[in-house]
Each structure stands twice: as C-alpha cells, then as structure tokens.
Amino acid sequence: MKINDVILRTVVKGVIFIILTLGVYLFFSGHNAPGGGFIGGLVLGSGLVLLYITYDLETVHKKMPFDFKKVAGLGVLLATGSAIGSIFFDAPFLSQTDTYFTFPILGEKHLTTVTVFEAGVALTVIGTLVTIILSISEDE
Amino acid sequence: MNNLLVLPLIIPIITAVVLVFLKDHIVLQRIISFITMLFVTVLSFILLNIVQTEGILRLDFSGWLPPFGILFVADSFAMILVLTASVVTTICLLYAFSTIGNRHEKMFFYPFVLFLIAGVNGSFLTGDIFNLFVCFEVMLLASYVLIALGGEKRQLRESLKYVLINVVASWMFLVALAFLYGTVKTLNMAHIAVRVAEAGQDPLLTTVSILFLIVFSLKAGLLLFFWLPGSYSVPPTVVQALFAALLTKVGIYALIRTFTLMFPLQQDVTHTIIGIMAGVTIIAGCMGALSGRDIYTIATYNVIIGVGFILIGLAVGTETAMTGAIYYLIHDMLAKALLFLLVGMMFYITGESVVKKMSGLIKNYPIFGWIFFIVMLALAGIPPLSGFVGKVLIGQGAIEAGSYILLALGFASSIIVLYSLLRIFLASFFGETTISLEDSKPIPKGAYWSFILFTISIVFVGMGAESLAVYVKDAAETLMNPSIYIDAILKG
Fold first, then answer.
1. Which of B137, B133, B139 is nearest to B70 (CA)?
2. In this predicted structure, what is the pLDDT of residue B417?
3. Would you call A80 and B6 a contact, using CB atoms and an 8 Å cutoff?
4. Local structure of B211: helix, strand or coil
5. Each residue of B329-372: pLDDT tens digit?
6. Where are the domains of chain A?
7. Least Cα separation, residue B11 to chain A (angstroms)
C-alpha cells in the first residue's frame, strides 16, 4: 500500500537538519551544561529513526550503509578505550584530562579526553536505539 | 591505586566488543575468548597474591577518593571468587567449543559469555553498593540473552519468567538502595558500615537490611528459589553450567558482604532469619532432589541444597564457619559446573533425561562414568575431595555456636545429595547397556578435556586445601573483622 506522505516527506527534509543539529549541539553543550553523549545520542538516533519512517529501509540503507550493531560496538570501544587509556599514563582508571590549544584560525579551544568518552556513549546510544527500532519493525 | 584491579572487568568487556566485529570468524572468536579468559585467570591469581603481601587493594576511579567516588576493592574473599569464576568460565569455554554449535556461535554466544563474566567479576570487586547494582544488571542482561538464545518454545517460556522475576528483584534492589541512601546518605560500602555502626543499627536500618536480604535471596535462590529449577534446565548445557556455577554465587557473595560488613550488628535478628531460610531451603531442596525423575531436576535441586548449605556458614557466623563457607563456595562453583556439564553430556549421548530410561553408560564411556562418580563423592563431601573441608569447617563452626538444628540439617542434606546422585549413577551408568559400542555417540574431545580439568581442580581443592588455607583464612579474617576492610578504604 502506497501512502501519500508528501507532507511528511517535505517536512522531514527541513526538520531533519534541525534535529541533527540540535543533537550535535546537545552533545557539545553537555560539557558544561545540560546535555551530553547520552542525550545527544538519543536525539541523533531519533532523527535517524524519523528518516527510516519517512523513507523506506532500502533508500536510507543506500545512503547510510552502516550496521548499527557495529556502530554500538564502536561506541563501547571508544568509551572503554578512553577509560583504559589513563592506565598507560599511570593514572587511575577512567581519569580524564584537558588542555587549551591555540589553533591557527579558530583561536584558543578547550580540548578534553572526556569528549572521546562522550562520543563513545553517543555512538552506543545511536547504535542501540536504531538497532532496537529496526529489529522490531523488520518482522511483520 | 592499582590499575590491575579493573582488568578482570574491563578486559572481558573490550574483548566481547571486539568479537562483535568478528562475527563470521568463529575460530578466531574461540581463540580470542579462550586466551582472554586464561589471561584473566592468571591475572586474578597474581592479584590474589598481591593482596596477601600488601593487604586490601583499592582503585578509586578517576582519582575520586572514597567515600565520594566509585571504587573497586580487592580483598582475599573477592579475589578468590574472581579467580574461581574465571577458572570455571575458561574450562566451560573449552566445553562450549565442541558442543555449542554453529548457530549459537554466529549469534554472539562468546561475547555474551564474556559480558556475563565481566558482570560477575565486577560484582565481586566493587566497593560501592550502587555499582554492585550496575554490575548485577550487566550480568543479568547477559544471562537474559544466554537463556533465550536458541529460541526454543520451552526456552522462551522459562526465560520470560526468569526475566520477570529478575526485573522485579532489581526493582526491589533499587528501592532498598533508595531507603539505604535516604537513611545513611552514602553508597560506599565501607562508609555505610561506619554510619550504620554509629547509628547502632536501629530497627529502621535492620528493616532496610532485611529488604536487601529478600533481594539477594531471590538472586541467590535462598528460600525464594521457585524460579530456579525451570529456568536453569532450559538453556544449552554449557550455559546451565555457567549459571549454576556463577549466578547464584554472586547472590551469596552479596549476602555475605551485606551481613558481615554493612549490617553485622543485629545478628540475633538478621542471622536468625538467614538461618531459618537456609534450613528451609535445604529441606525443600532435598525434597526436590528426592522426588526428581529426570537428571536436570535432580541437578538443579542440588544447586539449591548447595546454596542453603553455604548460608549455614553465614547464619552461624563464627570465623571457622566463615572459613568453611568460603571453602565450600569454591568447591560448589567447580563441582556444580562439572555436574551440569556431565548431566548435559548424558542427555547429548542418550537423548534421554529420565534417569530410568538410561542404562549401562559406564561400559561405553568408562572415563565419563568415573568422573561422574568422583563429582558425586565430592558433592557428598567425602574426603579427600573438595567438599570435605568446607563441610567439616561449617559443621565445626555450627557446634561452636551451638546451632545443632542447622548442623543436623546440613549433614543430613549430604546424605540426600549422595542418595540422589547415586540413584543416577546406579540406574544410568551401571546395568546392561542398551546401546552397542559401535552405535554409541562419541564424546567430543574438548568436552573430555573440560571434564578432566574440572576433576583435577576438584581433587586439587580437596587435597591441596592446605595450600589454599592462607588465602581462605585471610578472607575469613577480613569478613569477621570488618574494621580491616573499612580502614583500608577510608584511612588509606
């Protein structure tokens, strides 16, 4: 059955950028304000799910050929990797560090290893969320 | 600070995730998971020895000092259990390689075994009670997958019950945590112990402790074991062995920790309740084991008897009894894993699970038969095998404390255990064989190796009890004197 979803498709084309941008914004704002990897990941993941709802599985898969189980795996590896990295610097497990770098154009920026950890969390959340939704929707 | 402490948790997790990427390379998955578990085993042995020389170790995650941060604590008790759990998992993996089948291996079987052991090791090592909850959940989520993997009708029915029971238990755990945090305002176990002692463990705190008792009893199968026989008999053999060896023991560990470290002050209330529960558990377990007609029922009720017996040690609460309980815990993990592997192999060979329908197995499989005989003797507590030391010490402790009813129940249960397994041995192994030597299915080599390794470790725990005594005595001493633990955390 073909549903006439012109309105949905048109709206999503615009809205998806707002959702994904909000996800990225939440991810970075989490460093000092509400937000962070988990929430950012949820928003990004729900954006992807919206794409899957609007277009069919094949179309989205053609443009994003990811196995989301592996995305989740990559996320856990990143998070545990950043946690275990501290062992090699003789600091307690899970220790994080940060410094200020001056870049040519961007100017002085605050770089932290906790961002890597948060990125891992975000990827895990995206991977898990999309995998759950896809596997529920797959069997008819 | 000692970063080695976190490795028994984090290495299985990282390996499990790496294995997810190697989905189609099954041989590689086997090799990597086996090497990982060997490494964790060696590492936990090294850590156990470090604890002997340097005292209790602790690792404050990212440097947050207790009681503010989350920490891992390694005392002898925790390390002994981590070591035993790792040994059991390593040997069980050996059995899994030759029996679990391609279908399971392709559905991430090895990653989930590794997640399970990560959760188990984390539960033993953590020094923060909320972190204990998290590690419990890691272990339980892996166990939900392992119990349902395969998708048979029975499995789905039993796994649904298992998941429901455990979700309710976890919810109660959270409620108990909330009450505890509301009353003592801390989650660090050592700090809780201090605050509870300062408040003198008033009736409110004792009530909270009883809530924990209920939660951990559900997990350990102490009295509240109604879910256990069903759910432990449906998954593949090797998963059954892992569950029987590890899951209930984590509950027992949590009970022992809670009532020796955090709530030891109202023993006439809490320990009496534990004693009654242990006694009833043993009686009910014996009834189940006697009435069982098939090998799985008998084996699962033997797990329940074991749980009751170990907790007699806690209920009695003298140092001798605690030493016995630790010895028996080590023995029970090894022997129950072996028992379940053997029982599963009997089903694999004959396709039958009813005792009377099998006969004469020992003619075709002599080594297999005698190994069953050895594990039977070990479980009954016959010297010089592993069950003996634990039983004698728990008995001695019960006499010291004058708990003669528990003593009688405990030793009577040994006879029932012997009888229930002897029935299997006489009916299924002795007698006329129904299958000729040519028609009999061969037992895979890997399975034989795992049987032999388990048997060696059982004999070692029995004969070498003296060499283990250093570790076990230290563990029992720390349990009996919580101040050693508390000082190591809060004054270090």
1. B133
2. 94
3. no
4. helix
5. 999 999 999 999 999 999 998 888 888 888 888 888 889 999 99
6. 6-138
7. 10
User: Cα dihedral angle (B214, B113, B16, A63), rounded to 10 degrees?
Assistant: -90
Please check whether residue B208 is in contact with residue B179, taking contact to mean a CB–CB distance below 8 angstroms: yes
Interface mutation target, options A89, A94, A124, chain B, most CBs of B under 10 Å: A94
Whether the CB-CB separation of A78 and B25 falls below 8 Å is answered with no
Contacts of A139 (CB under 8 A, 6+ apart): none
Of B10, B18, B20, the CB nearest to A84: B10
Asked if the C-beta of B437 comes within 8 angstroms of chain A's C-beta atoms, the answer is no
User: Coil, strand or helix: which one is B71?
Assistant: strand
Secondary structure of chain B: what % helix, strand, coil (to 5)?
80, 5, 15
B62 touches chain A (CB under 8 A): yes
Whether B68 and B110 have beta carbons less than 8 Å apart is answered as: no
Using CA atoms, how far apart are residues B292 and B365, in angstroms rounded to an integer? 24
Phi-psi region of B222 (alpha: psi -120 to 50; beta: other; left: phi over 0): beta
CB pair distance less than 8 Å for A95 and B62: yes
Which helix (H) or strand (E) element contains residue B205? helix B203-220
Give every residue of chain B whose pLDDT is below 70, as ranges.
Answer: 1, 492
Give the DSSP H or E segment for B485.
helix B482-490
B24 touches chain A (CB under 8 A): no
Global confidence as pTM:
0.94
Find tokens 């995730």 and name the residue: B17
Task: Show residues of chain A in contact with B10, CB under 8 Å.
Answer: 80, 83-84, 93
Q: Do B59 and A92 touch (CB under 8 A)?
A: yes
Rounded to two decimals, the ipTM of the complex is: 0.89
Helices (H), chain A: 6-29, 37-54, 57-63, 68-88, 114-138
- Both tokens assigned to A101: 């770098």
* Of B423, B219, B238, the residue nearest B338 (C-alpha): B238
Distance CA B74, CA B121 (A): 11
Q: How far apart are CA B449 and CA B308, in angstroms?
A: 31
Kindly give the pairing relationship between strand B71-74 and strand B57-60: antiparallel
| Residue located via tokens 């590794």 | B114
Q: For the segment A37-90, what is each residue's pLDDT rounded down to a tens digit?
A: 999 999 999 999 999 888 888 888 888 888 888 999 999 999 999 989 888 888
User: Which residues on B lie below 8 Å from A93 (Cβ)?
Assistant: 3, 5-6, 10, 59, 61-62
10 Å Cβ neighbour count for B148?
18
- Give the total residue count for chain A: 140
Name which of A28, A57, A33, A49 is nearest A122 in CA terms. A28
Taking the Cβ of residue A31 and every Cβ of chain B, the question of whether any pair is shorter than 8 Å is answered with no
B363: tokens are: 């003619």
Nearest chain A residue to B6 by CA distance is A93
Specify the residue for token string 């049987």.
B451
CA distances (Å), origin B134, targets A12, B44, B78, B268, B294: 38, 21, 17, 31, 36
